[in-house]
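Teaching assistant here, posting this on the class forum so everyone can see the example we discussed in section. The complex has two components, and the goal was to see what a joint structure prediction looks like when all of them are supplied at once.
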Amino acid sequence: MKLDTERLRDDIETNATFGEVATEEGRGRTVLTGSEADKRVREYFVTRLEDADLEVRYDAVGNIVGRWNPPGCDPDLAPIAFGSHLDSVPRGGIFDGPLGTYGALEGVRTMQETDVTLDRPIEVVSFTEEEGARFGVGTLGSSVASGELSTREALKLEDADGITLQERLDEIGFRGEGTIDVGKWDAWMELHIEQGTRLTDAGAAVGIVESITGITNCEVTVTGTADHAGATPMFERSDALAAGSEFVLTLERIAEEVATTHEAAVGTVGEGSIEPNVRNIIPERVRYQLDIRDVDQETMDTIVERCRSSLERIEHHRNVTTSLSRYRNTSPIAMSERCLSAAAAATEPNTESIRLYSAAMHDTANVGGVTDAGLLFAPSEDGVSHSPREWTDWEDCAIASGVLAGAVQSLASEAS
Amino acid sequence: MKLDTERLRDDIETNATFGEVATEEGRGRTVLTGSEADKRVREYFVTRLEDADLEVRYDAVGNIVGRWNPPGCDPDLAPIAFGSHLDSVPRGGIFDGPLGTYGALEGVRTMQETDVTLDRPIEVVSFTEEEGARFGVGTLGSSVASGELSTREALKLEDADGITLQERLDEIGFRGEGTIDVGKWDAWMELHIEQGTRLTDAGAAVGIVESITGITNCEVTVTGTADHAGATPMFERSDALAAGSEFVLTLERIAEEVATTHEAAVGTVGEGSIEPNVRNIIPERVRYQLDIRDVDQETMDTIVERCRSSLERIEHHRNVTTSLSRYRNTSPIAMSERCLSAAAAATEPNTESIRLYSAAMHDTANVGGVTDAGLLFAPSEDGVSHSPREWTDWEDCAIASGVLAGAVQSLASEAS
């Protein structure tokens, strides 16, 4: 479907003025849930939904939905929904989230202008707190909407100032009632920037995501003995940092080996701490947070098992104790065949597309657990995201949004 | 020299009641410079010096000196000084510092009781802030007294609450005037607990320290590229923590190799940080604080050079940048032959002694830079210090203090 590039650009650029961060390297924004910037972002979004005659509602955690009953539709049928999120990380980019949200709205406006008749209602959606940047829980709004997290628990979450999500939403006037139940959607589609370089490497304008990788998080601790860094001879030490460093390199090697046959497999230690962390004391304990992903649950399990074995080896030859606690596992999720086919069919013959996996979490992973879901990617320059340097050409925004809208239009015509 | 074990024990135990930390594993104390506990520690010390008819003075940074002019001495001759410190780390032990301070005082009392006549005056000393636990600069008092640090700079140092040393000393009434000039001492001796197990391993009651190891501190940074932990394939990463971990293991290997021929050589990474330190972001930068020691300056230089070479290798094969900044070098210092001989001569034939090096810093390292200095060790059980578990048998306290006092007495009789 051919969309209006300028109209889409106007919306994304206007949205980018809220919480704007102007830097030399690019234009960014900081839109934390419940902030003044978030209030203006939401008010503008509601205005634009209403400008297109959509009926707006929002639920108890501030998820916003604009409903369109197209000519010819049965308003009692389960709708096709599409959208994304409008919050950002601190000093984030202007496309991550807004592209999929305003891309969906632009799709509806284009359908309205073409006098299309459809079987099903259509909903344009923006989920609350996808980034988890203020309340620490990513894809929060879709977790509630898909039943993963209760509204009550979500509203009690506190930000760094000890203010709850409920209070923040009340402050900006966006705490509604009830829950948007995504399980009642016939299907869902999301467009997002890739946050990687597979599309630009392939010269493709659209990525059709086949699966979203699962994520396993583990906490590893290595405990040695705190001793005086001067008075303890090298051969009498039980140095937790040296032992921990051996583990960091072992996880890297394991993940590299697995990745030679499973390209999506990754293992990362992004976060760590040392105790007591004093220059002249041999470290007693290190604590690492692991992030392990793949499109295949079994591969993730294998990596965790190999980590356990390597820790046992390290215990033996270094006289330390270790622990590995696997505190989170989100299984990989496959996108629905229906949505994949609709996206493929909606891709113009002269538009290059590739099939790929998503290594980042998205609201679609939650929605996909309860109804048919699809995810599309638009190219991001140099793969940069979460930064003012994030960039997607306006033409690419429109092309990918056109595939999204085309897929949704065809899904909404399929009522059997 | 045979001292009164009970009188020494009484002083150390009374001193241990100030800032007392009673735990299941032992009796500790927290005596931070300028605290209420420190005030009581100092007041008791002054009382005990005065009880022994010593003339007490304290300087601008609170170093306390008790002067005794023994029968027969020329009060204009340069004195022999001995002592240690009375401050502690938080939850420190009751012997670290007080043993050497009250051991010296008990030595004076014993000399007084034996009607000895000596050529030189004798001074009993307690230096301020040896631990650096409140103002961040270890051996502070002796650094000022030996001219390493100016009184003005020292008094301006701030604690964690932003209160200066000057204010803290004023609060407890122990900011005197002028500076105790250790360069005017004929010689200095200190007794300290070993903080290691070489004495207990050898079954020795006294350690005669031949040299104090030097210390080099370096800051190493490794900079890679922050990237999404899910979306960045294993083979496209520039992971600062993985590269840094390789460095930690390399330093360990270098120090182990050097230590096979230089037993005092050690290299430690005790402190480190990760940026941005977020679970799902590949680390952009790690920063490590290195602590490298040996009794030989050249060995320390070699270890630093080998660290530089290893960082170059890591830069090449890991696509990171690195830096190494050597921001502190305290050269190893040899104890004076005069003091070593006096200590050896003062060791009773039935007292087992060994010669060794000190791997920990002591006030004696500063004093030894400007006058003849000697350092003795008493055994510490399991080598534990800076903990309520720190322990030295009272009999061992008295034996080592006796060697100290005997050495000082013979040094004070040598005026030529």
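For the discussion questions: DSSP finds twelve helices and 17 strands in chain A. Chain A has a mean pLDDT of 96. Think about how each of these relates to the inputs above.
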